[in-house]
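Re: the 415-residue chain
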Amino acid sequence: MEDKRYDVWLSQCFPYGSPLPGRLLAQYGSAKAIYEAEEQDLASCGILTKKEAAIVKRTLIERADRILNDCAHHKIRVLTQNDPDYPERLRNLFAPPTVLYVLGAFSGIDEEPVVTVIGTRSASEYSLAVARQLSADLAKAGCTIVSGCAVGIDAQAHRAAIEAGGKTIAVLACGLNVNYPAENGKLKRAILNSGGALVSEYPPGVNVTRQTFPVRNRLMAALAVGVLIVQAPVRSGTLLTAEHALEQGKELYCVPPCDLFDPNYNGVIRYLRDGAVPVFAAEDIALPLYAAFSEKLDLSELKGDYGYAGIVSMKGLSKHSPGSKWNKRDENETVSQEKTRSKSEKKQETVETMFDEIHKMVYNHLDTHPKTIDELAVLCQLDVGTLYSVLTDLELSGAISSPVGGRYVGGEEVK
């Protein structure tokens, strides 16, 4: 605890999120060495201005003592960059936190397939349902769900992960003993009771301000291998986390807007245009992660199809409810479905009569949801060379198609 005393002191010398503590630690080797350095030495080290060096020397070690006493009182763990449980994912940041304050189970994070789920506090019922479904499915598959414990999307992501029997971590924009937001006090307890964790860069007693959220957001992005935006308007603070994810080289996933004309959904559009991964089901996130986390993920837990019926169900609507616009299209739909069935039957017949078991296996892993060759390689347990050959045969026969570049679509299952 004596060594941590100096790290906590160093964290109080500069604004939270400053890169200066990290640069000083790299040069001096330890927080204690920085504490013991003369002001003139600090001012001439090439990192600090004279004013900053003076502030460092004026920062009293007693501040650290008070923080450590508060942590002991609230049973909060203090992690420094020398602690084995301090995540490498955070250590690699441009401005890594000097100290982390932790409640709950927070070890081995670097080996976990962590997905950060974020979105607006003023989410629609549709987006809340999507956040619940995606978070639950990802948690069942073995992903750890990170969010910010705010009302709205954050709370739904945490709750869904807990109910699915998974692990979730809340990264807070305040001290761990601060009751914010007040309505999520029960949720925080549930996170801890389910084996999750509460984490903050802020010591006990620090309240939320407009500045604490952007500083916190970089940690939410850094802990994860990818960040999922469920819903965000153009000016949402959610997009700050998205920017951090891109700067850190993390994968960015976006749920496409439910309504292109509703500005409450349009924050993700430019990211989708610039190459963010559109997410229609948990597979869109979990499958690409499987190669790196095969021992952690169980893809058999994924449902595989939300489709139109699933979305209608999430909205609480009925396709054939009175007054539904779909009633007007029933007759056309019936004709269309008959044509689709006819095409599917022909595809099935082609695969059944022309191809061997490997071709049938690949065909059976394709449905109306496009899949990349990497996703198929994981599902079929085939090398890419063999898979390319099989896909070429199937495509030339007309059994499958690739309407979206690099993605393949099939039809009904062949027995």
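The longest helix spans residues 330-354.
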